[in-house]
Write a structure and sequence with these properties.
Layout: H1 2-22, E1 47-48, E2 51-52, E3 73-86, E4 98-113, E5 116-131, E6 137-151, E7 159-169, E8 191-203, E9 208-221, H2 225-229, E10 239-240, E11 246-248, E12 253-270, E13 273-284, E14 292-303, E15 308-318, E16 327-328, E17 334-336, E18 343-355
Antiparallel strand pairs: 1-2, 3-4, 3-18, 4-5, 5-6, 6-7, 7-8, 8-9, 9-12, 10-11, 12-13, 13-14, 14-15, 15-18, 16-17
């Protein structure tokens, strides 16, 4: 029995030893690359041992363009020349040969970036009419400058906090034809300057702009002393003694404080037909409260092609400071200053338009 236990114990030990020797050992996989493979040529760009052979690289045929900073300015330049002519040869009904021409130049420089806008416009017009048997006469004369600065609180709103400047005058003297000895107007006689703050609404898609200012300073300039002495365009007239001798000269500047409202609208009313209208209303708080000065223009532009167009326009003015039918004595003393009237102008023409 004792011998049997010894044999079993030896056999069991041998078996455990053998089992331990045959248990498999897990070893991580190790990849050894003997030689790095060469990359194939791709689109004629040869690569060897991961290094680019620059001698085989192809150069670009086009030059690289430098980066240009985008401009936030928009500009518009337009030159126009409208004319009309009438000629008669052995015309039984009679008539005088005549020709007239109106030259116009229009500039816009508008800035817009996020919260800020700044719109500037300059409109210049001058026209002459020549008729057989009389002197050349002025038919149109205008200088208009406007500048509006706006700031909004976000990029979605169409309402702006705004400041506006407007200036109007003319190039040359104006007369009550055929009398050309005594000018009735001239450069800076009158000249109008509006400067104020307020709010504006601007919709670029519908091309409509409205400006409202509860505080606007209006200055009227009459730099011609003879007109200033007459009290023309609202300035304080000169004073004379009983014998008609000048005591004090007339004032050249007349200041007003009031409210201003302007509106601009532009739309296509048909194929190649553009309508534009501008309206300005001003009311003085101090001297004539409740009286409203009106400046309204309405124009239709008919486009024939890129260089030929025709237009018809109207212009209505009413200013309580501009008097008509003034009565003066032989010594030049004004006995009746006259009364204001509605002023109306209509222009029809065909001509050349060049935008650049």
């Amino acid at each position: 029995m004792k011998n049997l236990l010894i044999i079993l114990t030896i056999s069991f030990g041998i078996h455990l030893t053998y089992a331990q020797e045959e248990r498999p050992t897990v070893v991580d996989t190790i990849v050894i690359r003997i030689q790095q493979q060469k990359a194939q040529a791709i689109n004629d760009l040869k690569i060897k041992d991961t290094l680019v052979l620059l001698n085989s690289a192809q150069t670009l045929n086009q030059k690289l363009r430098s980066f240009t900073m985008p401009s936030f300015w928009k500009k518009k330049n337009k030159f126009g020349l409208n004319f009309s002519e009438v000629a008669f040869v052995n015309w039984n009904a009679g008539g005088n040969n005549s020709i007239s021409a109106i030259a116009s130049v229009y500039f816009e420089r508008n800035y817009k970036f996020r919260y800020v806008t700044w719109d500037n416009a300059l409109d210049l017009r001058y026209g002459l009419n020549a008729q057989e048997g009389r002197e050349v006469r002025k038919s149109d004369d205008q200088i208009k400058l406007s500048s509006t600065f706006g700031y909004r609180s976000d990029t979605i709103s169409k309402w702006y906090y705004s400041g506006k400047l407007k200036f109007n005058t003319q190039f040359a003297n104006g007369y009550n034809y055929p009398d050309t000895s005594d000018p009735k107007s001239g450069f800076m006689a009158p000249g109008y300057l509006f400067l104020g703050i307020g709010t504006s609404y601007k919709d670029e898609d519908k091309k409509i702009t409205i400006y409202l200012s509860p505080i606007t300073q209006k200055a009227t300039f009459v730099m011609n002393q003879n007109l200033a002495n007459q009290g023309a365009f609202g300035v304080q007239a000169a004073t004379y003694d009983a014998e008609g001798q000048l005591i004090t000269e007339g004032k050249r500047i007349y200041m007003e404080l009031g409210s201003l409202m302007t509106g601009n609208y532009e739309t296509s009313v048909g194929e190649n037909v553009l309508m534009k209208t501008d309206l300005a209303l001003y009311m003085d708080y101090l001297n004539s409260f409740g009286n409203v000065d009106v400046d309204w223009s309405l124009d239709f532009h008919f486009k024939v092609n890129d260089f030929i167009s025709s237009s018809i326009g109207t212009h209505i003015l009413y200013d309580d400071d501009i008097k008509f039918d003034q009565i003066k004595t032989e010594d030049g003393i004004i006995t009746d200053p006259g009364s204001p009237k509605i002023q109306f102008k209509q222009v029809l023409g065909i001509g050349i338009v060049y935008a650049f």
